[in-house]
Amino acid sequence: MFMIRGLFLLATTAIKLRIEQELVIFRYALFCSSGLVSKTLLILRISGLLALVSLATLWCFMAHHWEVKPPLTTPILVVVYLFLMLNSLWENGWVRERIVRWRWGLLGLVVCQASFLMALAVVSNSDRVSSTSFEQVRYSNETQSLPGGLQRSQIAGLQLRKVLINESMTSVGVAQSDTAQVATNPTETSVDLAIVGKALNYPNPCRLGASGTTIGYVLTKDAPIEIRVYDPYGQEIYTENITKGLNGARGGSGVNNYNTVEVNAAKLMTTNVPAGVYYYAILSEGKLLGRGKIGALP
Amino acid sequence: MKNFRGFLCLMMVISLFFVTRVLGSDYLIITEVGTSATTIGKGGIQGFDHTSNSIFENPATLVYTPKIGVSSFMTNLFGEYNIMAMSGSMETKFGTFGLGLVQGGVNGLSNTSVSGGFIQEDGTFSFQDLIFKLGYSTRLSPDLSMGVGCSYYQKSISTVSGTGVGCDYGIYYVGPLGDASVIVRNMFGGAVRYSSDVSEALPSQLVFSGRVPYEDYKLYGQCKLQTNKPLLTSFGVSSSVFGVPSLSWMAGYKQFWVLNKAQSCVTFGMTFTVAPLSIQYAFEPSNFVEQSGKHYLSFSTEIDTTSKSPLEILGVK
């Protein structure tokens, strides 16, 4: 991963350097008011363009294939660069003539490149989906083979309630942590703190400015918990700190240890809660354990 | 034409009384996020964006847009909320007309039920928010322009959806010391009525803003008033980067409403212009968990159809 990030950084830096060079050339061209000054420079610029397109392709490939979060500045700079490049190239009669002559070929090249990138994106996504499905199947197989009374079960990604209360439910939520463990003894310190499955709220959608909603989740162990609720634009509208061991901050399996926290008009201290999507985050000592979305009805 | 203008002026005066009467404003308008990175970058100061995006702010400034103007704006908040705005304006001999569309949405909200004491996910639903705007602007005198806008609001959450219509007007004055903008949003109030027989009142807002040039800088100030909410003030500054006229920066202090309280933040933005294209970026800090800030990006282009061919319009000769 380190190497991929290094390559990625290299590609990004190269693109930036190339664009900075182009900006200098562009300013010079503006200064001379004559566009390109020589064929040598023209060849250099065309090779630069090809290099940039290759780097951009590599950049996209890395971003899609390895799920590296790319900085947004790079595509913006590429767009700016291409705009400047095409604008100034067009000023050269020789280039203009060839662009007009080879317009269909160039268009085909662009379409091919776009198709390639789209195909790459689709393939990358399908890879991710298929691997997720595989993991889910594996986990549910593990679930079926587990005994009913779990003491300290490895339940990576399994549907928790199916095991705990032996009911056939289809979607309790996919685990956020593949190595999450539930301890019967909640005070056990060797267990990593995590939310098992997904934090969900009921009802959803709800009237947040009236009866509100109840957030429910399972913790692997007791821990102090902080619940934060955000408005549709990400501004914090409510915070609740829950002491370790109380409802909302207790760990362990079983319905008795299922944590529920209500968010309603009384807690928000207003009934004027506009319709929209609100967000909640569950944290412990600053570490994000899980988050979810509340659909607020008018 | 003079009578028509007189009528519009009269309508403005009358509507001021409506603004003071409207109560219980609670519909959350998606444009409160901002519809242009330049506006956000200078502290949310509205009314001085002379692109077609002004239809979302002060319709009176549509007269300052070129023959044909096209703008777009986009942001993604916390990887969840996608917001996109597009607008266009066209100058005619009757005045300048504009239209705009803002669309936002969140997918993958869990539809839940309770079984055996646990909350379980039964499926997902989505949230969609849309505003469609039509605007018209004309000059009342060389230094005074006015504009009116009509907004169609639509919001849907799961199976519940609602629609409503609102009207805005604006005045823009170019004075010897600076410019002034007055915007009255949803001047007749109105409501968004949902399929669940519930209504949300459209908020009537009054926005006063001014711009004063000072040496190489432009200083901005704004007061925003909405019924049942505290008064908001914002300040901003913008200037071009020394030695690079195509690049300008902006910064601002912004107040905004969070439910019924006022909060504030600072903002920052950059604009890069290579005629006819302009690219704007704005940054705003966020207290959302694990997010340091919000990023906004907008593009705008202006087209003068009178003397240029389409290739020239695109910047090629």
Task: Provide the descriptors you would attach to this structure in a database record.
heterodimer, A: about 300 residues, alpha+beta, four-stranded antiparallel sheet, three-stranded antiparallel sheet, 7 strands, B: about 325 residues, mainly beta, 14-stranded antiparallel β-barrel, 16 strands, disordered C terminus
Q: List the secondary-structure elements of chain B in sequence, H or E.
A: HHEEEEEEEEEEEEEEEEH
* Cα gyration radius of chain B (Å): 20 Å
Largest sheet of chain B: 14 strands, antiparallel, barrel
Total helical segments of chain A: 7
Mean pLDDT of chain A: 67
DSSP helix fraction of chain B: under 10%
**Multimerization status:** heterodimer
* End-to-end separation of chain A: 46 Å
Explain the overall architecture.
With 298 residues, chain A is α+β, with helices and mostly antiparallel strands. Helices cover 46% and strands 17% of the residues of chain A. Chain A is built from seven helices and seven strands, in the order ααααααβββββαββ. Chain A has a four-stranded antiparallel beta sheet with strand order 4-3-6-7, with no helix packed on it. A three-stranded antiparallel beta sheet of chain A has the order 1-2-5. In chain A, helix 1 runs antiparallel to helix 2 (39-65), helix 2 (39-65) packs antiparallel against helix 3 and helix 2 (39-65) packs parallel to helix 5 (103-145). The longest helix of chain A has 43 residues, at 103-145. Chain A is elongated. Chain B is mainly β and 317 residues long. Chain B is built from three helices and 16 strands. Chain B starts with a helix and ends with a helix.
